[in-house]
C-alpha cells in the first residue's frame, strides 16, 4: 500500500512540475537576473520540494510554497558565494535598434538598471512589482520585518529614479 501511495505521490509531483516549471523559471530569472542562477535556484527548490512533496502538496498554495523555496535557495546562494564575486565595469550602452525592437531594448535597459541594485532590494522590487505581493508577504519571503521590506522597495525605487534622472540629463 505504501509503495503505491509513494508512486502516486511521485506522479503527482511530476505532473505538477510539468505544469509549473516554466513559470518557476521565469520567476527565478526575474529574481536572480541570470539564467544559470535561476535554473540552479529552481533545481534546488524542486529537489527539496520532491523530498517533502507530501507536505508541500497539502499547503494552501503549493506554487507559492515552492516560490518561497526558490527565494530561499537564492538567498542561500548569496550567503555562500556572493562575497567571492568581484564587481565588473558598467555594461556599455548600445544605440537604439533600428528594427523595431524598442520595447525589448527598454525592457533590457530596465533590467540592466535593476541588476545594479543590491540583492535584497532587487528581490523586494521583483516580489512587489513582478509577483504583485504585499509588503507583508515580501517580508516573510525575505525573512525581515514588513517595514524593512518597504524600505528595500523604497530605496530601490529611489536609486532607479536617481539613475534615470542622471541618464536623462546626460542625454540632453
Explain the overall architecture:
This protein is an all-alpha fold. 77% of the residues lie in helices and 0% in strands. It has 8 helices and no strands. It has helices spanning 2-32, 35-51, 53-57, 62-81, 102-115, 119-130, 135-142, 146-171. The chain is globular. The mean pLDDT is 82.
What string gives the helices and strands in order? HHHHHHHH
Report the mean per-residue pLDDT as an integer: 82
Q: Which blocks of ≥5 consecutive residues have pLDDT under 50? A: none
Count of DSSP H/I helices? 8
Strand content: under 5%
Name the shape in a single word: globular
* Major β-sheet annotation: none
Q: Termini, distance in Å?
A: 73 Å
Helix and strand content put the structural class at mainly alpha
| Rg result | 19 Å
- Report the helical percentage: over 70%
Summary of the model, kept short:
The chain is mostly helical and 172 residues long. 77% of the residues lie in helices and 0% in strands. The longest helix is centred in the first third of the chain and has 31 residues, at 2-32.
Amino acid at each position: 500500500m505504501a509503495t503505491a501511495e509513494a508512486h502516486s505521490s511521485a506522479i503527482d509531483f511530476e505532473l505538477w512540475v510539468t505544469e509549473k516549471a516554466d513559470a518557476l523559471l521565469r520567476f527565478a530569472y526575474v529574481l536572480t537576473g541570470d539564467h544559470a542562477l535561476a535554473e540552479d535556484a529552481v533545481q534546488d527548490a524542486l529537489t527539496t520540494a520532491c523530498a517533502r512533496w507530501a507536505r508541500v502538496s497539502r499547503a494552501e498554495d503549493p506554487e507559492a510554497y515552492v516560490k518561497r523555496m526558490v527565494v530561499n535557495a537564492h538567498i542561500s546562494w548569496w550567503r555562500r558565494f556572493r562575497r567571492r564575486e568581484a564587481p565588473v565595469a558598467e555594461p556599455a550602452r548600445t544605440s537604439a535598434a533600428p528594427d523595431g525592437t524598442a520595447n525589448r531594448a527598454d525592457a533590457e535597459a530596465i533590467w540592466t538598471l535593476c541588476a545594479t541594485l543590491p540583492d535584497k532590494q532587487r528581490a523586494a522590487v521583483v516580489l512587489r512589482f513582478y509577483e504583485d505581493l504585499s509588503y507583508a508577504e515580501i517580508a516573510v519571503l525575505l525573512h525581515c520585518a514588513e517595514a524593512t521590506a518597504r524600505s528595500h522597495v523604497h530605496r530601490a525605487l529611489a536609486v532607479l529614479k536617481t539613475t534615470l534622472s542622471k541618464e536623462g540629463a546626460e542625454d540632453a
